[in-house]
Design goal:
By secondary structure, the protein is α+β, with helices and mostly antiparallel strands. The chain has one domain. The protein is about 30% helix and about 25% strand. It contains eight helices and 14 strands. The strands form five sheets. The chain has a three-stranded antiparallel β-sheet with strand order 1-9-8, with helices on one face. A three-stranded antiparallel β-sheet has the order 10-2-11, with no helix packed on it. A three-stranded antiparallel β-sheet has the order 3-5-4. Strand 8 and strand 9 form a beta hairpin. The longest helix has 29 residues.
Length: about 250
């Protein structure tokens, strides 16, 4: 688990970030965390699933970027190619953390040991006069907005779970060499349960603005076909013949 240090101009005046730090971060992520406010945009280019945080059991919205651990099919020749760039990629390597001076307030934290940071090369984090660079100012704005987006996402996740709308799904990957590994720990929307909801509940979902991201989650599953195509374009990977989604008949506990 990373240890965060509060970012200050006094302590980190000469610190820089490498130009490709966001790509280096994303290229090893076969799932990337999303906020509910990003779902409609992300669904246009990648499948979206829920996973459960192994440490606290919370539900996490994720963009699915590869069938193999430690890889990301949306990075090509060092460039991000998806139509949507996840917010956590845009803000990396900066994070929100509780202020050491006031635990009820947030500040920007960094993991100083991460190779994204350098004292000799890359973009400066602070200007010579100690003011935030343009990049840091933009990141700060995104992180401040993320406080509200995080709360909204937690509320969305909890509500659809309470309605029993999350169902486990396993992806069976059929490779051309005959191997058939399975990808588990994923959850999607239970479409049958959604259609069986009463009018009052559906109206509440509409009022809360939840119906659009729910529909986007369902539609995003069609992006699995595009992901297979991306996979098969890489000669370094074993080609995929097809995949099969095995959706559980029981909702998530």
């Amino acid at each position: 688990m990373k240890t965060l240090t509060e970012l200050t101009p006094q302590q980190h005046h000469d610190l820089r970030i490498t130009d490709d730090c966001a790509i280096l971060f994303a290229q090893q992520q076969n799932i990337m965390n999303l906020r509910v406010t990003e779902v409609s945009q992300a669904a246009c280019c990648m499948p979206i699933f829920y996973v459960r945080n192994s440490q606290n059991g919370q539900w996490v919205l994720t963009g699915f970027t590869s069938f193999e651990q430690g890889s990301n099919l949306f990075i090509k020749q060092g460039q991000w190619t998806a139509l949507h760039t996840p917010a956590n990629m845009q803000t990396f390597p900066f994070f929100l953390m509780a202020s050491p001076d006031n635990p009820h307030q947030y500040t920007i934290g960094i993991d100083q040991t991460h190779p994204a940071f350098s004292n000799t090369s890359g973009q400066r984090i602070f200007e010579a006069n100690g003011k935030a660079s343009l990049h840091l100012s933009r990141v700060k704005t995104l992180l401040e907005a993320d406080i509200k987006n995080d709360l909204r996402t937690q509320e969305f996740n909890q509500y659809i779970h309470q309605l029993g709308l999350l169902r486990p799904v396993t992806i069976l990957v059929h490779y051309q060499d005959g191997s058939t590994p399975s990808l588990s720990g994923l959850y999607t929307i239970d479409e049958d349960k959604l259609q069986s909801l009463d009018k009052e509940t559906l109206f509440t979902l509409h009022q809360k603005g939840y119906l659009a991201p729910i529909q986007s989650l369902l539609m995003s599953l069609f992006q699995l076909n595009a992901l297979i195509k991306k996979h098969n374009q890489l000669q370094t990977l074993t080609p995929i013949k097809n995949i099969k989604l095995e959706v559980s008949k029981t909702t998530a506990a």
